[in-house]
Amino acid sequence: MKIAIVSDSHDNRRALVAALEDAKSRGAEGVIHCGDVVAPSTLGACEHIGLPMHVIHGNNTGDLVTLSRRSHRPGAFYNYYGQDAGIELGGRKVFIVHYPHYGLGMAATGDWDLVCYGHDHKARIEAVPNVKGGSTQIVDPGSCAGLDGPATYVLGDLATMRFELLPVPGIESQQ
Questions:
Q1: Which of 6, 136, 153, 160 has a CA-to-CA distance to 118 between 20 and 30 Å?
Q2: What is the arrangement of strands in the sheet containing 84-89, beginning at the earlier edge strand?
Q3: pLDDT digit string (tens) for 110-147?
Q4: Number of structural domains found in the chain
């Protein structure tokens, strides 16, 4: 299963839509959003793309009540989990959180195959050692809105555990 991993869209609908449309054209079947969506309408702009989304909030919370209510509607295209989530996706155990220090702590436990986080707008893809003697894959996709650097997202293959940092087409850095 291929997935798009995005973060820190900060209400930039055009950037989020561009990232997800590009990911879908590359075979993505789902989306992980690592927080700072802000307004629920930002996600609404992505519904036409047809990819199921797994969403947590970040430090820019926006309207969490509406975000939650819309995720519980019949036929909702996204799941909203709150500040973090532990899910199974493509046969992998995935932890999603906004903050890097929290994500790195969860990766160290060895309980997860993949830990995704954002917040710092600095892309990072790395296998880090865990306390069980193995390694855990971490992914920080950077900011799809191009805040503090290039506009990026990650396309990942959960079958092979390969991850690629990609530019968001048509979105310039907001440095």
A1: 160
A2: 84-89, 92-97, 114-116, 135-140, 124-129
A3: 999 999 999 999 999 999 999 999 999 999 999 999 99
A4: 1
